[in-house]
Structures are given as C-alpha cells and as structure tokens.
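Q: I have 172 residues here and want to know how they pack in 3D. Can you give me a structure?
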Amino acid sequence: MPYSYPRFGSRFLYAAAVSLLVGGPASAQSGPSAAERSPFLGEWELDLTRMPDSYGPPPKRVTYTFDDVGSGQWRTKIDITAPDDSVRHMAVQYRRDGKMAPGEGDTSEADSAAMNSPAPNVLVMGLAKNKTLGAVRVYAISADGKEMTESATNVDNTGAPFVRNFHFKRIR
C-alpha cells in the first residue's frame, strides 16, 4: 500500500513525474541537436535539506526523469520513496502543447496533466483528478543547468492559496 504524507501527497509526486518529461518537441528529423537539447532532459533528485518548513515530514527520496521518446513526445517518470522504503511510481507521456495527457501508475491525487513551456527552461503544468483542477506547478531550470526549482501552488484546508518551492539537483 502506498504511503501517505499529509502535505507531500500524490499531486507532488505526479507533478514531479510530469515535470521530468519537459524538454520541447523533437525536431522533424532524427531528434534535436545538442544545441536544441532541453535542459530538463535527464534525472533530478529532490534536495531534502531545502524542504519548506511548512511542508511536514519529507519522503526518503524523490526522483524525476525526463526522457525524449521521439515524435515530439516526452515521458516523465517520478519515483517517491517513503521512509519505510515503499516506492510510488508515476509517469506521463505528453507533448508540451497544453493538452491533457493521462497519468500512469499511482493516480491517487492526479489522473491527468497538461503541460506548456513558455521558455526553454520553464514548464507549466496543470494537474487534474476526475476532470477537476488539483494543482498548478511551474518548473524552472537554473542558468547553469544543475538545479530545477518547482513552485507548487494549491489551497490549504481553509481554502487559502499557497505557493511552496522545492529544489532538485541534477543527477545526470
């Protein structure tokens, strides 16, 4: 049975997975050149030392992987490891065109996502469950390409909006 954290729910996990797929459409030929390679491509790990104070107990590990799967599509995979070493797996395959893509794996908080990229180092993601908006995430890659910041917005139990930042380090 997947673990649950009151403020580190499946939305974050799913968002993480989705964000890994960012990178822009592949070129019409065999793929993007090195100059066109998205800064999102690769694997990222959540920096647990920089978690927001208001978040609550963190997971043991969170990784996002963004892969170019060809034909202008990307696949983002998110793995969240709980303190008891159980792992939740999420994935989504999509184009960065703002259209809905179904989620795979753990969909307890979000079953679909839509992504758009207004700049090469920025990804905006909307998450939904049962056709209702659940959260909005904005991902940005640092100028040196070594850090990804997720700004996650939602509402708390009282209906008050909030934004929290999560920091990821590039693994590869």
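Q: Anything worth noting?
A: The longest helix spans residues 10-20. The domain at 10-170 is CATH 2.40.128.20 (Lipocalin).
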